[in-house]
Amino acid sequence: MDLLVPVAAAMVSFVAAYLFLPWLIRSLRGTTLVGRDLNKPHSPLVPEMGGIAVILGFYVGVAILVAFAIPVSSGSLFFAALSACLGAGVVGLMDDMFRLRKRYKAILPFALALPLGAVLYADKNTSLLGIDIGVFMAIVVPLGVTSASNAANMLEGFNGLGAGLGLIMTSSLIALSLLTGAQEGLFLLFPLLGALVAFLLFNRFPARVFPGDSMTLFTGATIACAAIISSPPLKTYGAILFIPMVLEFILKSRGHFQAENFGELASDGRLEWHGRVESVVHLVMRCARLREWEIVLVVWAIEAAVCVAVVLAVAAAL
Fold first, then answer.
1. Which residues contact 300 (CB under 8 A, 6 or more apart)?
2. Rounded CA gap, 271 and 158, in Å?
3. Which residues does residue 35 pair with via DSSP β-bridges, in sequence order?
4. pTM as predicted
């Protein structure tokens, strides 16, 4: 595949999200769709639902790919994946506006990803970990999408954290796709990459906008869908990239998923945590007294280490 079109799609996604975000931020100020930045002095109000810009930028970039690059033979699979991604994003928007219960954030992305599972089964793409699971693929796929979207949603709460993690994972999956020749997921990954880069410019410390569940659920679902519609090995590699999120799930389960990813602000601007460790960021704060942006860099480094290890292992095996 000529990479020029996906790269162009990433650039279009970047421009669309970057131009939309200032208007979105201005529009959200003074409304109820704002949240307090609890890791800052005086907990300033910051507009939420920035994920709308990521979704918008993504689909503008996708339009370029649909017009110039999507093979007719894989159209049904591609559009089923787009449906699953958008479904997760819509669930995130509903949660940002109406504060859905946690079980609904698990059930709804699952239901909205069922068409993707059905298409994979219809296409006889039913191999997982080297085993043909047959009709069970129609259930395993939506289960994977909702698990990935909610896993990405758990590890958030600091300026730039979720967007940066999404960028690292997306870039790594692009590298793995190019290494293995599994290019189907690139049609999702490049537009996501461009939109996340634009969003991070506004969400990095000190954040001018929060992502909301609309971004985190959408990003996790899109990364999962990109791996799912690719060749079987990439499904496994994609799952491994979520290891830090799996650790977050395990830690959160200790407190029945009630813990929040915030710190206690000290007088010198550093964040501390003296309670029970129920998050990866709690663990980082217990190990060292760091500023918010330093904590984000540590968690990014953990994810980057996992991704680099996977990419190097795959490259060495080829």
1. 161, 164, 165, 168
2. 11
3. 46
4. 0.94
What does the DSSP assignment read for 239-297?
A: HHTTHHHHHHHHHHHTTTT------EEPTTS-EE--S---SHHHHHHHH--B-HHHHHH
Bridge partners (DSSP) listed for residue 127: 132
Peptide bond into 71 cis (omega under 30): no
* Alpha-carbon distances, residue 225 vs 59, 220, 233 (angstroms): 15, 9, 14
| Rounded Cα distance, 198 and 15, in Å | 7
pLDDT digits (tens, 9 = 90+) for 123-182: 887 777 778 888 899 999 999 999 999 999 999 989 999 999 999 999 999 999 999 988
Which residue type sits at 121?
Y
**Rg of the chain, C-alpha, whole Å:** 19
Query: What angle separates helix 51-68 from helix 186-203, to the nearest 10 degrees?
Result: 150
Collect all residues with Cβ–Cβ distance below 8 Å to 309 and sequence separation of at least 6.
none
To 10 degrees, what angle do helices 4-28 and 51-68 make?
150
Question: Which tokens is 108 given?
Answer: 């709804």
Structure tokens at 220: 């996790």
CB atoms within 10 A of CB 23: 10
Q: One-letter amino acid identity for 216? A: T
Q: Left (φ > 0), alpha (ψ -120 to 50) or beta: where does 51 sit?
A: alpha
CB 157 within 8 A of CB 262: yes
Start-to-end CA distance of the chain, whole Å, equals: 20
Q: Nearest to residue 57, comparing CAs of 237, 196, 202? A: 196
Q: Reduced to 3 states, what is the DSSP secondary structure of residue 228? A: helix
Whole-angstrom Cα distance, residue 31 to residue 43?
Answer: 17
